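Figure S4 source data
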Amino acid sequence: MSLSIIKPGLLDTVQDLGRAGYGQWGINPGGAMDRYAAQVANMLVGNCSNEAVLEIHFPGPQILFEQNALISITGADFSPMLNDEPVSLWRPIVMRKNTLLHFPKHKWGARCYLSIHGGLCMDKWLNSYSTNLKAGSGGWQGQPLKKGDELSQKEGTIYFPAFLREQKNIRSLPWSADSKKMYRHLHEIFVMEGNEWEALTQSSRNNFLENNFIIHPSSDRMGYHLNGTPILLSEQIELVSSAVSFGTLQLLPSGQLIVLMADHQTTGGYPRIGHVITAHLSKLAQLRPSDVIQFKMVTAQKAEELLLQQHQDMNILKRSCQEHLNGMIC
């Protein structure tokens, strides 16, 4: 085995970019909450963007690496340390075997991602490594990692010790990803109008855009419950259950909102007043209970422009990482 869980964290699961194509059977896509951070973590170590990663919440786990490894940690900053040495986020790191990874202090964000060169040895369930906690399937035995779990890493193409200086167990490699653009103005979330937006009273539409909302402590990977000024319909309507997605904003009978997250149900019957744009889902995923959200309405054209720019930036990063890593392939 190559990774041993010495101490589990709050919620450590295996994730990838999700399980697409099974919604008609009630199986949600799931996958990483912050898909940008998960993809970049894989790019930095030369994996395909959909390779399995560990999604880690704070308090984080203690993980013993029993083999030499090339890793990267992206997303939230939980002050990662290898043995007693602090290491940087958004950067590839070579380590010698018998090195302990731990996360002693929360600084920023809700979840971070650990990638390992080559990926993890495990079977896919319905074409995905992602853990489906409700179904108890996928990932590592369909459940969060626990003390004593041992995971194997796939064989890579890099001879890691050649890049470690004598008497050194850890080396940060000299390239990194710049995530500042992605998480800029973290609490400002762009949305587009939903099917039932026009069914709201004018004052409720104004309140939605002018007031802040607070993420309730009961929020989880399925959805963020939001507290704020009640949102009202101009008249009561009955809806047939229809498809929902990651980022759908539903209006509950109480007048409060819920924004659906990665483990959302496949259909819902509550009014859909808006949808968080795809380019801002990763920002949303890094907000925590008690954090504030300010929604801003944008057009479909603006949402498309932001997503296209994000894809272009990631393609440039992917090519750059691959060029660096090509010089390390044995």
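Figure S5 source data
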Amino acid sequence: MSERVPLQPCGQAPTDSDAIAHSQQLVARIVEEIDAAGGWIPFDRFMQRALYEPGLGYYAAKPTKIGPRGDFVTAPEISPLFAHTLAVQIRDVFEQAPPRLLEFGAGSGALAAELIAELRRLGAPARNYDIVELSADLKAEQQARLRPSEAGAGADAAGDTVVRWLDAPPDGFEGVIIANEVLDVMPVKLFARRGAVTLEQGVRAELGTLRMAERPAGAELTEAVATIEADVGPLPDGYASEAGLVASAWVATLGRWLRRGLALLIDYGFPRHEYYHPQRAMGTLMCHFRHRAHGDPLWLPGLNDITAHVDFTAIARAARGAGLDLLGYTSQARFLLDCGILDLLRGVPAGASSTIDALRLLSEAEMGELLKVLAVGRGIRGPLRGFATGDRSHRL
């Protein structure tokens, strides 16, 4: 997402009364659920409603989320070279799997539009480009950009790739799957270690105001934290972090319906031993509002993006447990370099703003190192081009 600049939320409050009323309506619904549940709900349930509540959640209702007027920016919006470089890897995979693409959470549609055009230029056009999108307004933006038929499917503006919007992934999919900055917005459980006890953080209501509160963790979270400690050693007293159980479960389902092909999962994250490092004692949860970052997920729910980094060790294990092969893991910078982004940059006029934008994708201080690329699949022979010189699979 956007650069993580510290922010005092109260200093950035929106002045739009409709926006504030929108958030208050969502809070009222969440308070109703808290009351019905006996005064407390787990944080992952709060995050689910804050982001995806029909008609009110951030991804369900807030307009203008991505880009200069939104709250964050992703790689496809920064430079078209992201898609052009990704297309090189996809072209290779199309030699082993049907030329079909499936993207989860396609944002503004920028990645889809550039991939479709670049794959055609490379002589490997996609037959189909399917999109699973939960956000109604982003879906509308994608449809406007990709120019489908009124029936919701049609050839793209420049040729014969059929673009479709699906409510759920198809069974028995064969082709290439892309999930760019999708796993980091799946609800997470928050936990804290107090002595030898694991506590779960959740949300309570106090006179209509949301507050964080802890309770003893249930069996599932307790077991997850025990597994983490078996890998990294005992966590210090007072240590707090997240467990991305929903993301792991999603990857497990991917393994059930991916018949043949490759899935590229691109996101902020670390291998487990880095994620749960003793010095990262407050976790990675972060919120984004107007290109500023802050750490208060209870501030104006529905108006802020809420994210948490990805435990790529857990994701790789979930994929393997579902019968998928681990085909590579590296930084975004190394993946793009191995796929030839420098060759593409040579075709850009010197000093062009697009050159500076592309360098943001590679910078260790920005997206280059913070974002990782994990490749899993079935029936695909390696090695893959994007992991030729920088594969870090041994760190997972």
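Confidence is low (pLDDT under 50) at residues 1-8, 149-153. The chain has one domain: 75-202+217-283+304-395.
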